[in-house]
Amino acid sequence: MANPAKIFESIGKRTVAGLDEMGYAAAIFFEAIYWTLAGWRYRQPVRVSATFAAMMQFGVAALPIATLLAATIGLMLAIQSLYSLSIFGAQSYAYFGIAFAVVREFSPMIMGILIAGRSGSAIAARLATMSINQEVDALQVMGINPVRFLVSPVLIALVIVVPCLAMWANLVSLTAAGLYVSAELNQSFGAYVNDTIEVLQTGDVWQGIGKAALFGIIIALVGVVNGSTVQGGAEGVGKVTTRSVVMSISLIIVADMIFGFMTTQ
């Protein structure tokens, strides 16, 4: 039988470790913001070339799979909406649920999960490898701030790229859903587009964009924190990479739930 004292001790240690990671992530975030805004004063501005390279890697290179997932989500929502509403004979109002679900929930969340699995793991693996090889220490010895050099470009890129992918996912998902709904209901695609534009408001779109930007921050910080706290050799790199993906996806889903609850009250 487990000792209750040991159980509470383990819970306490994990809680303290979690709070320590949260504080470390907050410190890295504010330091990255500081170097982004004031790095030029110390003749160490954030590298524009590195930022654009990260945007290409995280965003442009992810467009094919993002398009495929967005189209699939749109078709899935259209199929389920028509099936559910057919029970009440209200298939013509399917665009209501599809528009709100895509713009407010599915596009930002699916793109966040995609980037977390595709790029969050790469961020953690890169920093973990650099930490083990003492490349981060070498940057400090050369007088280069590691947060400014490694973290700021990634953070800026993700905050820009994830909302852009979410907007692209909105267009692809709504188009795919519209084509299916129009074919099933024997109505014109233009009528579907007009109904969708009428039901959506600017605030709905901005809600999804805000979520996507928040998810970008989460992915960057989780990857950086896990990569910079690696222990061990190659096995340690694998562990922090896996942990980074799991933590990012979990936090994205929890943040999406909290964000959705707060914005619908």
Topology, please?
Layout: H1 4-38, H2 48-58, H3 63-86, H4 94-132, H5 135-141, H6 146-185, H7 189-199, H8 202-228, H9 234-263
Keywords:
mainly alpha; 265 residues; 9 helices
Plain-language structure description:
This protein has helices at residues 4-38, 48-58, 63-86, 94-132, 135-141, 146-185, 189-199, 202-228, 234-263. The chain has 265 residues and is mainly alpha-helical. It has one domain. Helix 2 runs parallel beside helix 6 and helix 4 packs antiparallel against helix 9. 37% of the residues are buried.
Quick overview of this protein structure:
By secondary structure, the chain is mostly helical.
Low-pLDDT regions: none
What is Rg?
22 Å
* Extended strand count: 0
User: Helix share of residues?
Assistant: over 70%
Domain tally: 1
Largest sheet report: none
Structural shape: globular
Distance between the termini: 46 Å
Give me the secondary-structure category. Answer: mainly alpha
Q: What's the helix-strand series?
A: HHHHHHHHH
Proportion of beta-strand residues: under 5%
